[in-house]
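Quick one, C-alpha cells below. Sequence please?
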C-alpha cells in the first residue's frame, strides 16, 4: 500500500540519519515509529530502548517503549516506562491511560493493580479539554477488574459513544468487544 511505502521510506531516511549520527534520539525514535507502523514491534522496541538509555530521555520515548512492550505482553517493563513518562510529564493523558489499562487488564497478576488503575483512569478522564474515549474505556476496564461490572458497562457504553462520535473506529470496535465481556461479567485479564 502507499502508506506502507511511506513507512518503509521513512525507516530508510531515519537509518541514513543514524549512520551520520548514531546518537540522534529523534531519528532513532522516528525509526522506531516507522518500524512499529510496519508491524515490526520487536525491532521498534530495540530502537526505543536505545533512546531511553540516556538519563535525559524525553517522556515520549518512555511512552513509546511502554506502548510497544505492552503490545508484546511485557507488562512489568511497560509499567516502569509508563511510570517514568508520567514522572517526566505528570498530566500527560496517553501514558496515564496506557498504564491504567495495563494495571487493569494485564494477564500477569503481579502486574495487575486494579485499584491504582481506577485512580489513574479517573484522573485521565478529568483532564481537559474533554475525556478521551480511551480514558473512559480504561476506567471501565479498571471497574471490571474490581468486579464492578454494571459500572464498567455504563462507562464502556459512554466511551463507545464518544469514540464513534469522534470517528475512532478501531477503538470503538475494541470497546464493543469489552462490552461483551462486561455483560458476561468477565474482566479483560481473563482468557
Amino acid at each position: 500500500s502507499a502508506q506502507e511505502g511511506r513507512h518503509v521510506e521513512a525507516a530508510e531516511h531515519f537509518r541514513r540519519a543514524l549512520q551520520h549520527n548514531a546518537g540522534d534520539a529523534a531519528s532513532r525514535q522516528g525509526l522506531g515509529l516507522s518500524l512499529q507502523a510496519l508491524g515490526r514491534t520487536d525491532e521498534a522496541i530495540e530502537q526505543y530502548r536505545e533512546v531511553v538509555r540516556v538519563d535525559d530521555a524525553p517522556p515520549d520515548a518512555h511512552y513509546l517503549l511502554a506502548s510497544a512492550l505492552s503490545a508484546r505482553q511485557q507488562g512489568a517493563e511497560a509499567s516502569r516506562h509508563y511510570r517514568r513518562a508520567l514522572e517526566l510529564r505528570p498530566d500527560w493523558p496517553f501514558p496515564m491511560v496506557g498504564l491504567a489499562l495495563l494495571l487493569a487488564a494485564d494477564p500477569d497478576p503481579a502486574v495487575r493493580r486494579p485499584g491504582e488503575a481506577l485512580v489513574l483512569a479517573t484522573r485521565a478522564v478529568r483532564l481537559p479539554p474533554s475525556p478521551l474515549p480511551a480514558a473512559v474505556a480504561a476506567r471501565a476496564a479498571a471497574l471490571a477488574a474490581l468486579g464492578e461490572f454494571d459500572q464498567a458497562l455504563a462507562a464502556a457504553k459512554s466511551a463507545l459513544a464518544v469514540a464513534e462520535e469522534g470517528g475512532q473506529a478501531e477503538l470503538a470496535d475494541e470497546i464493543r468487544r469489552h462490552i461483551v465481556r462486561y455483560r458476561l461479567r468477565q474482566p479483560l485479564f481473563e482468557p
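The chain has a mean pLDDT of 94. Residues 2-20 form the longest helix (19 residues).
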